[in-house]
Amino acid sequence: MIVLTGATGLVGRSLTAELGGRTRVVTRAPRTAGFPSDVEVVEGDPSRPETLADALRGASALFLHPRAVGAAAHDLVALARAAGVRRVVALSAANVDDDLAAQPSRFRGDRNKEADDAAATSGLEWVSLRPSSFALNALTAWGGQIRAGDDVRYVHAGFEESPLHERDLVAVLVRALVGDDVLGRVDLTGPESLSHAEMVRVLGEVLGRPLRFHEVPAEAAARGMVAGGLPEPFVTAMMARYAAHLARPQFPPTAEVEKIFGRPARTFADWAADHAADFQG
Predict the structure, then answer these.
(1) Which terminus of the chain faces fewer neighbouring Cβ atoms within 10 Å, N or C?
(2) Are 7 and 33 a contacting pair, CB within 8 Å?
(3) How far apart are CA 129 and CA 112, in angstroms?
(4) What is the mean pLDDT of residues 240-253?
């Protein structure tokens, strides 16, 4: 039995779909969670570990989601160890060792450093997955613009990342939770480094549309993002990250997905094809 925190989010629901009846999902609102009937759903708040005492009994593994668990990662892992859990798998991030103020997702609630440290010091079998930027971020950043037309306005046309398909992340998480060949810290990326402008070009090719990238000054883009509802500290940290790594990619491609599965990681074009409908007006 595998206990999943963060089960109602994108990663958690995908994990639940893959693991099926082997899962015990923890949610603050079980009556509205909408999970399949073969999944055990229990009420609890991962940021308050004492509420998970019953959920952890008889479990073999625990998945730590850094936003769901928050600052309670160490306490939750200690409770899991006392309950006889043998393995803990944490979702962290590639930039987890950067200064905390330079980690944008931290300003949206992710406590990647705490989850990573809690897994590594757990005294259990442990895995900490450190994914690079998600390909899905392209939908968040540009989806509205592409649904409205063929012009994409964003910062730093030449900034490069190695976008990771969420299906590859979930596949590795499943292997980490139920297999024996993924242990320790694992740096996950997509198979290629692409600039913002190149990603928009790929999207255009997949969608069959003449998408055009227009670089916007960082200050103007930041004002627009904040006006659109993004937290100012998050936007500030993201813009600082872009500026600091314009010369070369911060996280170049790794071969971890291929090492684990014997096949290349899914490309950004693969991801775009899987999400083509999300970009249609």
Answers:
(1) C
(2) yes
(3) 10
(4) 88
Q: Which residue has the tokens 């969670």?
A: 33
Q: Which tokens belong to 122?
A: 């757990």
| Cβ partners under 8 Å of residue 178, min gap 6 | 2, 19, 22, 61
In the numeric block, the tokens 């923890």 are attached to 26
Cβ atoms within 10 A of the Cβ of 211, count?
22
Q: Which residue has the tokens 């998945």?
A: 63
Indicate whether 29 pLDDT > 90: no
For residues 68 and 46, is the Cβ–Cβ distance under 8 A?
A: yes
Nearest residue to 65 via CA among 103, 27, 122, 101:
27
Rounded Cα distance between 111 and 101, Å, is 12
Spatial distance between the Cα atoms of 66 and 68, rounded to a whole number of angstroms:
6
SS3 state at 101: helix
Q: How would you classify residue 18: left for phi > 0, otherwise alpha for psi between -120 and 50, otherwise beta?
A: alpha
pTM (two decimals)? 0.94
Phi, psi of 24 (to 5 degrees): -125, 105
Residue 152 CA to residue 146 CA, distance in Å, equals 7
How far apart CA 133 and CA 156 sit, in angstroms, is 16
Using only C-alpha atoms, the chain has a radius of gyration, in whole angstroms, of 19
Count other C-beta atoms under 10 Å from residue 227's C-beta: 8
Structure tokens, 96: 């987890």
Query: How far apart, in whole angstroms, are the C-alpha atoms of residue 168 and residue 261?
Result: 10
Joined together, the tokens standing for residue 267 give 């490309």
Is residue 33 predicted with pLDDT exceeding 80? no
Q: What's residue 250's pLDDT? A: 81
Q: Which residue type occupies 63?
A: F
Residue 143, both tokens: 């989806």
The DSSP H or E segment spanning 126 is strand 125-131
